[in-house]
Specification:
The chain is α/β, with parallel strands linked by helices. It has a single domain (about 5-45, about 60-220, about 235-250), classed as 3-Layer(aba) Sandwich (Rossmann fold), CATH 3.40.50.300. The chain has 10 helices and 9 strands. The protein has helices spanning about 45-55, 90, 100-110, 115-130, 135-140, 145-160, 175-195, 205-210, 230-235, 240-250, and strands spanning about 5-15, 25-30, 35-40, 60-70, 80-85, 165-170, 195-200, 215-220, 220-230. Strand 6, helix 7 (about 175-195) and strand 7 form a beta-alpha-beta unit. Helix 6 (about 145-160) runs parallel beside helix 7 (about 175-195). The protein is globular and about 50 Å long. It starts with a strand and ends in a 15-residue tail after the last helix.
């Protein structure tokens, strides 16, 4: 296990009006520079875990336990130390502002750049996330871009300040299979280039198996299993993990690590 960037101890989160907690006593270390996939069914607490890490829980959330940041020397600054890619890029982008302006403003807010420097930084980010014709894309409004292009803009905004931790909450669920693979490959590349830690939230372990180092499995707010991806794929210890694997990839299937999924 790498030196931890973040440590969760007894983390529990409940929402007003809900009979059951969204998270219940989660203990988890997130290693600096690792790629951690967090998997589970809808309602398992995956997004709540992501929001708690990012300090973005809604006002009606009640939190117990603690999140420590031994890998930082100060409290984490959302946007600066933590970048967040939401599931629906269309909803996370302002529909009435050009996307280049939105990414440039993120850079200005966190890096103190001039307007001109921030614009140049946004164009460089658009090149890094492989948006076709960055200059034209920067002048577009979100509705003028495809779903995959909007998600690339959202990723550019999330990494604008060079965060230590990048959280991607189901970033491919609204995309077709080919674009999903492209976005996952892009995240993998950007994390490697920037030396970032990645927390990848997904219900699809097959999607994450090709690039995540480690996996955590959530079931009704409880962390039921953690371990290296290859070990969890080949020798899951919890019945719920075995059920999830059976839904997505047969338990007799060879490990997907380093292999391309069959067409």
């Amino acid at each position: 296990m790498r030196a931890p960037l973040a440590t969760l101890r007894g983390l529990s989160v409940s929402y007003a009006g809900s009979l059951l907690p969204a998270l219940a006593g989660v203990d988890l270390d997130i290693g600096a520079g690792e790629r951690l996939a967090v998997i589970g069914e809808s309602g398992s607490g995956k997004s709540t875990l992501a929001l708690a890490l990012a300090g973005l829980l809604p006002d009606d959330a009640t939190v117990a336990g603690r999140i420590g940041w031994p890998g930082l020397r100060h409290p984490p600054r959302p946007g600066r130390d933590i970048g967040f890619v939401f599931q629906d890029a269309g909803a996370s982008l302002n529909p009435v502002r050009r996307v280049g302006t939105q990414v440039a403003e993120a850079a200005r807010a966190h890096l103190g750049l001039t307007r001109r420097a921030a614009h140049g930084h946004a164009l460089n980010l658009f090149r890094r996330v492989r948006l076709p014709d960055p200059d034209t894309a920067a002048r577009a409004f979100p509705h003028q871009l495809s779903g995959g292009q909007r998600q690339r803009v959202a990723i550019a905004a999330a990494i604008a300040a060079g965060p230590k931790l990048l959280i991607a909450d189901e970033p491919t669920s609204a995309l077709d299979t080919i674009v999903q693979a492209e976005v996952v490959a892009l995240l993998d590349e950007l994390v490697a280039e920037g030396g970032m830690t990645l927390v990848f939230i997904t219900h699809d372990i097959a999607l994450a198996s090709g690039f995540a180092d480690r996996v955590g499995v959530l079931d009704q707010g409880r962390l039921v299993e953690t371990g290296p991806m290859e070990r969890v794929l080949t020798a899951p210890r919890d019945a719920y993990t075995r059920m999830l694997l059976g839904c997505h990839i047969g338990l007799d299937t060879p490990p997907l690590i380093g292999e391309e999924a069959a067409p």
